[in-house]
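Practice problem: predict the structure.
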Amino acid sequence: MAEKLSVQEKAAQDTRSSGTVAGQECSSSDNRLARIRIVLINTTHPGNIGAAARAMKVMGLSSLHLVTPKAFPNADATAMASGADDLLQAARVHESLDSALADCSLVLGTSARFRSLPMPVLDVRRASEQALEESASRKVAILFGRERYGLTNEEMQRCQYLVNIPANPVYSSLNLAQAVQIVAYELRVAASGGAGLSVPPFDWEPVDDSQMEGLFQHLEQTLLDLRFLNPKQPKRLMMRLRRLFNRARPDQNEMNILRGILKASQEAVEREGKARG
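Answer:
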C-alpha cells in the first residue's frame, strides 16, 4: 500500500512543479525578447551605444543592431556599457537600414515629433504588447533615431507604427539611452505577464520589410506606367500608399496577389502601347 505523502513532501512536490512551469514561462519570455532587436541609427556619441546596451541587458534584451554609427567600436561605448560589453561584441553593424530590417515583419519607430503626414501611433506600453505578440514567431525591430533630430521621414515610412513615450510637453527631450531603457522596461513588463497576448489568425504570416519595399517600388513604377502618378511629385501619394499597406500588413498570399495585379496592369499598358504603335 502506497504511503501517504506528508504535508512537507506535498509542499516540496508542488514547489518543484511550480518551478518547472515558471521556468518554461521564463524560457518562452526570453525567446520572445531575443527576437526583438533594438536598432540605433547613425548614433553620434559612442557612449550612448554603451548605455543603451546596458539598458537592454538589465531588461533581458540581447539583440543590438547599429546602422552607420559614427564611432564604433569605441572605448567610451565599453565604459558606458558597464558589464554589458557582451552585447556590444555581439552587436551587428549595418551600412543601410535595409540590411538591419531585412528579416523583420514588424517595425516600430520611436519619435517625439509627429510630422505633417499622420501615421498610426501607439503609446510605449501598447507598442511593447504588440512587439511581444509578434515576437512569439517573428522578428521585430524597434528603431531609435539620431540624438539631435531622431528618425527621418523616410525612416518613419518603414514603420508600421510610431511609438510615443508620454513626457512633459514643455520639455520632452529624452536621452537616447533613456528612451531605450523605457522601451526595454515596458517589454520586460509585457514579457513577465503584465500584458495580455492575443493570437493572430493561424494562416497569417506577414511578409518582411524587404518584401514590403519591393511592393512599394513595384507599385510606384506601375502607377507611373499607368500615368496615374505625377512623376514630378510622386512622394506625397506614395507616402499615403505606404501608410495604407503598412497598416494592412499583407501576408505572403496577399503579397503574391498584389504583385500579380501590378504585373498584369503593366502588361496591359505594354500591349496597349504596342497596339497603338
